[in-house]
Design a protein that fits this description.
Helix content: 40-55%
CATH architecture: Alpha-Beta Barrel
Number of domains: 1
Mean pLDDT: 91
Largest sheet: 6 strands, parallel
Strand content: 5-15%
Bound molecules: zinc ion
Order of helices and strands: HHEHHEHEHEHEHHEHEHHEHHHHHEHH
CATH superfamily: Metal-dependent hydrolases
Oligomer: single chain
């Protein structure tokens, strides 16, 4: 796509697998000589479900410069966030299994971007890395994936992505079932049935074992409840639901049973900020405003449920993906240009905090965290990254300082630290 000028980044990361990549990455910015005593280390403030590389790839933006709509590094950092999981999302590229190719394009985009801005950010391969990076005043970025790394679930492909820095995998494909797991959103976003395997299959169980032995955190978001329960059971390490709400509070999201099972395994739920997910009032407004409701899901679902307009012909020599890229870029553009219906009932911080409060009461403060999934194309709470300031303050107001520290970042750090369970 562009001239390859940052190949050293990837080699460094690969070498880092044996040498301690955090130290190596930090060394390149000349920052390891600073010692960080544990008692004056900065508090980790972490959002465990961000999508920013997709924006860099499709919009060509530099998110260290504040943008008008959606998530960016500049505003998130200014509002106190110092650590994220960036979920690379291949989405519509599951057609004909272009997923690994699209994932590689996004991975390369993030690694080059991180290298270019190494004074402000670095890739974290472990919680120790993240603490060093944050201690040096920079943003730590864990690499995750949403909607699958490979529709066919190839073990070698997973291993290769781990070596490039992948540390968290949303097991299910967003908009259809893959070769190893069902998808809860399949009927709405891809027109497929949600119970093809009635959970995960034997290949899925093998992938769980491989992720446990590599140290890849398993994300059950968008899996069916059967698949969620089977993943929690199959994994030897804690698993997460990176961006979800609680059904008992929001009317949509995880059942109490799943939250309890997640917690019993040491995992967590990251609370989603999307209005249509977190807010009963917003969904009531949608129910009484069909046009508003259509508008509310148009841009995001249009992108997520994209299918190529033509069938890939036999003997194709690249013409098909060129066409697919053009079509998908158009869908992405609709996200950037989306506007909320002026009559919409906006979600409140109280509605967000109520989810956290409920999880604390149900299973304790070790099992809840932030996973906003803030993207262009839909209304959310906070409305934009400047709102992290209010969110952080509201969490501190809700509970004890020790609980707040966990919810704001330490719970995410713990589960990444426990992801390797051979
Ligand atoms: Zn999602």
């Amino acid at each position: 796509m562009m001239k390859r000028t940052f190949t050293r980044t990837r080699r460094d990361i690969l070498r880092g697998g044996a040498l301690g990549a955090g130290a190596l990455l930090a060394d390149r910015a000349g920052l390891t000589t600073k010692a960080f005593a544990a008692d004056n280390a900065p508090e980790i403030i972490m959002d465990g479900h961000v999508h920013i590389t997709n924006r860099i790839y499709w919009e060509g933006i530099d998110p260290w410069t504040p943008t008008k709509q959606g998530w960016d590094f500049a505003r998130a950092r200014a509002a106190g966030v110092n650590c994220i999981v960036d979920n690379l999302g291949p989405y519509g590229y599951w057609s004909y299994n272009y997923t690994p190719k699209q994932f590689l394009r996004l991975m390369d985009t993030l690694l080059r971007f991180s290298d270019k801005h190494s004074d402000k950010m670095a890739i974290a391969l472990s919680p120790d890395d993240a603490r060093r990076i944050v201690g040096s005043g920079r943003m730590a970025v864990f690499i995750g994936c949403e909607s699958g790394f490979d529709h066919e679930g190839d073990a070698d492909v997973l291993d290769a992505f781990y070596r490039l820095g992948l540390r968290s995998v949303q097991f299910t494909t967003q908009s259809g079932f893959n070769s190893y797991s069902d998808s809860a959103l399949a009927p709405f976003q891809g027109g497929e049935k949600p119970d093809h395997f009635h959970g995960i299959n034997d290949q899925g169980r093998k992938l769980v074992t491989q992720m446990n032995s590599l140290g890849i955190l398993i994300d059950v978001a968008h899996a069916t409840e059967a698949a969620q329960n089977q993943l929690i059971q199959a994994s030897r390490a804690p698993v997460v639901a990176s961006h979800e709400t609680i059904k008992a509070v929001a009317g949509a999201g995880l059942s109490d049973d799943v939250v309890k099972a997640l917690a019993a395994k040491g995992g967590l739920v990251g609370i989603h900020g999307g209005a249509a997910v977190v807010s009963k009032r917003y969904r009531q407004w949608m129910a009484s405003n069909p046009e508003g409701a259509k508008n509310a899901s148009k841009a995001v679902f249009g992108m997520l449920s994209y299918h190529p307009s033509v069938t890939r012909p036999p003997g194709d020599h690249g013409e098909f993906i060129a066409r697919m890229d053009n079509e998908f870029r158009e869908k992405w553009k609709e996200l950037a240009e989306w506007k909320e219906d002026p009559s919409a009932v906006l979600p409140t911080m109280d509605e967000y905090i109520a989810q956290i409060e409920y999880v604390i009461k149900l299973v304790g403060a070790d099992h809840v965290a932030i996973g906003l999934d803030m993207v262009n194309g839909r209304t959310s709470i906070p409305a934009d990254p400047t709102g992290y300031t209010d969110l952080i303050a509201a969490i501190r107001k809700l509970t004890t300082p020790e609980n707040a520290r966990k919810i704001l970042g330490e719970n995410w750090m713990r589960v990444f630290g426990q992801a390797k369970a051979a």
